[in-house]
Design brief:
256 residues, alpha/beta, Rossmann fold, 11 helices, 14% strand, globular, binds adenosine-5'-triphosphate, binds magnesium ion
Length: 256
C-alpha cells in the first residue's frame, strides 16, 4: 500500500446520474472498514454536504468556497467516525467569475490539499455536473478519476466528455500526469434492452476500468439520502446497500 493519501474524484458532465450518491456510499463504506476519509463537496448544489452533515446548510462556519477565496480559512468539519467534510454552498456557483483575476486558478485545490493529503487514507471529491474550472481543479488535484453513469445515451456522452478532459489533463506535463482513470460505475440500472445495450457498450469500450457490480435502481437509496442517513444504517440488508459495499471493496483494490 502507498503511504500517501489517495485523492479520488467522481465525475460526469451529465447531471443526476448518481455521482453524489456513489461518492457518499463509497466513502462511508471505506470509513466503516477503518479508513480515514475526507469528503470534499465541490458542487454548489451542496448535495453531498446535506447527505453527510446533520447541520443545516446555513450553519456551516465556512465552506470550500471560503477556502478557495481565502486560503487561511480551510474549515474541515468532523462528521462521524472516520469521516470529515469540507462543505459546499450555493455561492460556489460564482466560482469562475470570483476567481477570474487569479493566476493559477486551476491549482487552487492542489494547493489546499497538499498540506492535508497525508492525514487521510482517502480524499473523496464530488464534482458538479459540468466541465468548468471546478472539475478542472478536481482532475488536476486527483490521483484517481472515477466516472459515474446511468446506462443511457446522455450519461454516456457526458462520460465521453469527462474522458476527453481527462486525456487533456494527462497529456499536459504541467497539469497532472499522475491522474489515473481508476473506475467506471453504472448506477440506476434497470433490466431492459436500452440499459443492457449501454452496459455492454461500457464493458466493450471501458472494460478494463468498469467496476462490478451494477448498482440497480431502488427508491430506498433516494430515501436514505433525504434522511441524512447512510445506506448502511438506513437499509443494512438492502440489495443496493450490498451492491455499494461490494463496489467500494472492488474500487478500493484499484485506488490503494
Ligand atoms: N440507485 C439508485 N436508485 C434510485 N435512485 C437513485 C439511485 N442513485 C441515486 N438516486 C437518486 O437520483 C437522484 C440523483 O442522484 P445524485 O444526486 O447522486 O446524482 P448526481 O449525479 O450527483 O446529480 P448532480 O449531477 O445533480 O450532482 C437523487 O435523488 C438520488 O437519491
Ligand atoms: Mg451530485
Amino acid at each position: 500500500m502507498k503511504d500517501m493519501g489517495q485523492i479520488v474524484c467522481f465525475a460526469n458532465n451529465k447531471g443526476g446520474v448518481g455521482k453524489t450518491t456513489t461518492a457518499v456510499a463509497i466513502g462511508q463504506a471505506w470509513a466503516r472498514i477503518g479508513k480515514k476519509v475526507l469528503f470534499i463537496d465541490l458542487d454548489s448544489q451542496a448535495n453531498l454536504t446535506t447527505m453527510v452533515s446533520p447541520l443545516a446548510p446555513e450553519d456551516h462556519i465556512s465552506t470550500i468556497r471560503d477556502a478557495f477565496l481565502n486560503k487561511k480559512k480551510f474549515n474541515i468539519e468532523h462528521v462521524t467516525d472516520g469521516i470529515d467534510l469540507v462543505p459546499s454552498e450555493l455561492a460556489l456557483s460564482n466560482f469562475d467569475r470570483d476567481t477570474a483575476s487569479l493566476t493559477g486558478r486551476e491549482y487552487l485545490l492542489v494547493d489546499l490539499l497538499a498540506p492535508i493529503k497525508n492525514k487521510y487514507d482517502f480524499i473523496v471529491i464530488d464534482c458538479p455536473p459540468a466541465l468548468g474550472l471546478i472539475t478542472y481543479n478536481a482532475l488536476i488535484a486527483a490521483d484517481h478519476l472515477v466516472m459515474v453513469a446511468t446506462p443511457d445515451g446522455l450519461a454516456y456522452s457526458g462520460m465521453v466528455m469527462v474522458a476527453n478532459l481527462y486525456a487533456d489533463v494527462k497529456q499536459n506535463a504541467r497539469l497532472n500526469q499522475n491522474l489515473k482513470l481508476s473506475g467506471v460505475i453504472i448506477t440506476k440500472y434497470e433490466r431492459n434492452k436500452l440499459s443492457d445495450m449501454y452496459v455492454q457498450k461500457v464493458k466493450d469500450e471501458l472494460g478494463d476500468v468498469f467496476i462490478e457490480p451494477l448498482i440497480t435502481k431502488a427508491t430506498k437509496i433516494a430515501q436514505a439520502g433525504s434522511f441524512c442517513q447512510s445506506i448502511y444504517d438506513y437499509d443494512p440488508s438492502g440489495k443496493v446497500t450490498k451492491q455499494y459495499a461490494e463496489l467500494a471493496n472492488n474500487l478500493l483494490q484499484r485506488v490503494l
